[in-house]
Amino acid sequence: MRGYFTDDLLLILPSDTTASVRLFGEVISTHRGPLALAITGQSGQGDEITVDLTGVHYLANSALEILVAVALRLTQPACLVVRATVELDLRGRLAARGWDQINTLRLTDACPRGESPRLEDVIIEQLNVCWRRCSNNASLEHLGADVLGLVELETAPGVRVLRWLSSPRR
Q1: How far is the C-alpha of 48 from the C-alpha of 147, rounded, in Å?
Q2: Nearest-5° angle of CA 95, CA 101, CA 107?
Q3: Less Cβ crowding at N or C end of the chain, within 10 Å?
Protein backbone atom coordinates (compact mmCIF):
# COMPACT_ATOMS: atom_id res chain seq x y z
CA MET A 1 0.00 0.00 0.00
CA ARG A 2 1.66 3.20 -1.16
CA GLY A 3 2.23 5.76 1.58
CA TYR A 4 1.76 3.24 4.40
CA PHE A 5 4.20 3.76 7.28
CA THR A 6 4.66 2.39 10.76
CA ASP A 7 7.21 2.58 13.54
CA ASP A 8 7.10 2.46 17.35
CA LEU A 9 5.33 5.83 17.58
CA LEU A 10 3.23 6.28 14.46
CA LEU A 11 0.96 4.44 12.05
CA ILE A 12 0.03 6.09 8.74
CA LEU A 13 -2.80 4.47 6.79
CA PRO A 14 -3.51 5.90 3.35
CA SER A 15 -6.85 5.07 1.78
CA ASP A 16 -7.03 3.37 -1.58
CA THR A 17 -10.68 4.39 -2.08
CA THR A 18 -10.65 8.10 -1.15
CA ALA A 19 -8.07 10.87 -1.09
CA SER A 20 -7.37 10.51 2.61
CA VAL A 21 -4.76 9.49 5.15
CA ARG A 22 -5.31 8.42 8.78
CA LEU A 23 -2.64 8.78 11.43
CA PHE A 24 -2.39 7.15 14.86
CA GLY A 25 0.10 7.83 17.65
CA GLU A 26 2.74 10.54 17.92
CA VAL A 27 3.97 12.52 14.90
CA ILE A 28 7.51 13.72 15.58
CA SER A 29 10.12 15.46 13.44
CA THR A 30 11.49 12.23 11.97
CA HIS A 31 8.05 11.48 10.51
CA ARG A 32 8.09 14.50 8.17
CA GLY A 33 9.17 12.46 5.13
CA PRO A 34 6.67 9.61 5.51
CA LEU A 35 3.91 12.13 6.26
CA ALA A 36 4.68 14.17 3.14
CA LEU A 37 4.85 11.03 0.98
CA ALA A 38 1.56 9.69 2.31
CA ILE A 39 -0.27 12.96 1.69
CA THR A 40 1.19 13.70 -1.73
CA GLY A 41 0.48 10.11 -2.74
CA GLN A 42 -3.22 10.94 -2.40
CA SER A 43 -3.13 13.88 -4.82
CA GLY A 44 -4.95 13.43 -8.08
CA GLN A 45 -7.81 11.47 -6.48
CA GLY A 46 -10.02 14.52 -6.01
CA ASP A 47 -10.10 18.16 -5.03
CA GLU A 48 -9.88 17.43 -1.31
CA ILE A 49 -7.17 15.47 0.46
CA THR A 50 -8.22 14.61 4.01
CA VAL A 51 -5.66 14.07 6.76
CA ASP A 52 -7.38 12.47 9.76
CA LEU A 53 -5.43 13.21 12.95
CA THR A 54 -8.15 12.07 15.37
CA GLY A 55 -5.93 9.18 16.45
CA VAL A 56 -2.92 11.45 17.06
CA HIS A 57 -2.13 12.61 20.59
CA TYR A 58 1.05 14.58 19.74
CA LEU A 59 1.89 16.56 16.59
CA ALA A 60 5.32 18.19 16.39
CA ASN A 61 5.57 21.69 14.92
CA SER A 62 7.76 20.30 12.13
CA ALA A 63 4.92 17.93 11.15
CA LEU A 64 2.50 20.86 11.20
CA GLU A 65 4.90 22.66 8.86
CA ILE A 66 4.65 19.71 6.44
CA LEU A 67 0.85 20.02 6.40
CA VAL A 68 1.17 23.73 5.65
CA ALA A 69 3.80 23.15 2.94
CA VAL A 70 1.57 20.59 1.21
CA ALA A 71 -1.43 22.93 1.42
CA LEU A 72 0.59 25.84 -0.02
CA ARG A 73 1.53 23.73 -3.04
CA LEU A 74 -2.13 23.06 -3.86
CA THR A 75 -4.05 25.32 -6.20
CA GLN A 76 -7.74 26.00 -5.69
CA PRO A 77 -10.18 24.31 -5.85
CA ALA A 78 -7.85 21.68 -4.35
CA CYS A 79 -7.71 21.76 -0.57
CA LEU A 80 -6.03 19.93 2.30
CA VAL A 81 -8.66 19.11 4.94
CA VAL A 82 -7.17 18.35 8.35
CA ARG A 83 -9.46 16.64 10.84
CA ALA A 84 -8.21 16.73 14.42
CA THR A 85 -9.32 16.77 18.03
CA VAL A 86 -9.29 20.07 19.89
CA GLU A 87 -6.54 18.73 22.17
CA LEU A 88 -3.98 19.26 19.39
CA ASP A 89 -4.92 23.00 19.30
CA LEU A 90 -4.26 23.23 15.57
CA ARG A 91 -6.36 26.39 15.19
CA GLY A 92 -4.32 28.21 17.81
CA ARG A 93 -1.00 26.90 16.54
CA LEU A 94 -1.80 27.88 12.94
CA ALA A 95 -3.05 31.34 13.98
CA ALA A 96 0.10 31.97 16.04
CA ARG A 97 2.17 31.56 12.86
CA GLY A 98 -0.23 33.41 10.55
CA TRP A 99 -1.12 30.21 8.72
CA ASP A 100 -4.82 30.31 9.54
CA GLN A 101 -5.61 32.29 6.37
CA ILE A 102 -4.26 29.74 3.88
CA ASN A 103 -7.07 29.16 1.36
CA THR A 104 -6.00 25.61 0.52
CA LEU A 105 -5.92 24.46 4.16
CA ARG A 106 -9.13 23.73 6.05
CA LEU A 107 -9.43 22.48 9.64
CA THR A 108 -12.29 20.31 10.78
CA ASP A 109 -12.79 19.78 14.49
CA ALA A 110 -13.38 16.19 15.44
CA CYS A 111 -14.96 14.60 18.44
CA PRO A 112 -13.24 14.73 21.86
CA ARG A 113 -10.38 12.31 22.41
CA GLY A 114 -12.51 9.68 24.14
CA GLU A 115 -14.72 9.35 21.09
CA SER A 116 -12.08 9.13 18.34
CA PRO A 117 -11.87 5.91 16.32
CA ARG A 118 -9.91 3.07 17.87
CA LEU A 119 -6.93 1.76 15.94
CA GLU A 120 -8.38 -1.75 16.13
CA ASP A 121 -11.58 -0.59 14.41
CA VAL A 122 -9.62 1.02 11.60
CA ILE A 123 -7.51 -2.12 11.10
CA ILE A 124 -10.65 -4.26 10.99
CA GLU A 125 -12.17 -1.88 8.44
CA GLN A 126 -9.03 -2.16 6.28
CA LEU A 127 -9.07 -5.96 6.61
CA ASN A 128 -12.69 -6.09 5.50
CA VAL A 129 -11.82 -4.12 2.36
CA CYS A 130 -8.94 -6.51 1.60
CA TRP A 131 -11.04 -9.56 2.49
CA ARG A 132 -13.69 -8.62 -0.07
CA ARG A 133 -11.00 -8.40 -2.74
CA CYS A 134 -9.70 -11.91 -2.04
CA SER A 135 -11.14 -14.61 -4.24
CA ASN A 136 -9.44 -17.76 -2.92
CA ASN A 137 -7.31 -19.18 -0.10
CA ALA A 138 -4.08 -18.40 -1.98
CA SER A 139 -5.05 -14.75 -1.81
CA LEU A 140 -5.81 -15.13 1.87
CA GLU A 141 -2.33 -16.47 2.57
CA HIS A 142 -0.84 -13.49 0.75
CA LEU A 143 -3.16 -11.19 2.65
CA GLY A 144 -2.04 -12.65 5.96
CA ALA A 145 1.61 -12.01 5.25
CA ASP A 146 1.06 -8.58 3.78
CA VAL A 147 -1.86 -6.61 5.24
CA LEU A 148 -0.44 -3.56 6.98
CA GLY A 149 2.24 -5.70 8.59
CA LEU A 150 0.14 -5.68 11.74
CA VAL A 151 -1.86 -8.88 11.62
CA GLU A 152 -1.18 -12.45 10.76
CA LEU A 153 -3.91 -14.49 9.10
CA GLU A 154 -3.69 -18.25 9.33
CA THR A 155 -6.14 -20.32 7.36
CA ALA A 156 -7.07 -23.91 7.88
CA PRO A 157 -10.23 -25.60 6.68
CA GLY A 158 -12.90 -23.36 8.16
CA VAL A 159 -10.51 -21.62 10.59
CA ARG A 160 -9.27 -18.05 10.39
CA VAL A 161 -7.17 -16.53 13.17
CA LEU A 162 -6.08 -12.92 13.49
CA ARG A 163 -3.15 -12.07 15.76
CA TRP A 164 -1.76 -8.67 16.62
CA LEU A 165 1.99 -8.50 16.05
CA SER A 166 4.29 -6.26 18.07
CA SER A 167 6.10 -5.05 14.96
CA PRO A 168 5.47 -5.25 11.22
CA ARG A 169 6.92 -7.98 9.07
CA ARG A 170 9.68 -6.98 6.70
Answers
A1: 26
A2: 75
A3: C
Q: Which CATH class is domain 5-115?
A: alpha beta
Q: pLDDT tens digits for 69-102?
A: 999 999 999 999 999 998 999 999 999 999 999 9
**CA distance linking residue 112 with residue 163, whole number of Å:** 29
Domain ranges of the chain: 5-115, 119-164
What are the helix and strand counts (H, E) for the chain? 5, 8
Beta bridge partners of 162: 153
| Residue 159: strand pairing partners | 156
Alpha carbon distance 90, 64 (integer Å): 8
Q: What burial class does residue 55 get, using C-beta atoms within 10 Å of its C-beta: 0-12 exposed, 13-18 middle, 19+ buried?
A: buried
d(CA 155, CA 153): 6
Q: Quote the DSSP letter at residue 15.
A: -
Q: What is the largest CA-CA distance in the chain?
A: 60
**Class of residue 49 by CB neighbours under 10 A (exposed 0-12, middle 13-18, buried 19+):** buried
Low-confidence ranges of the chain (pLDDT < 50): 113-114, 135-155, 159-170
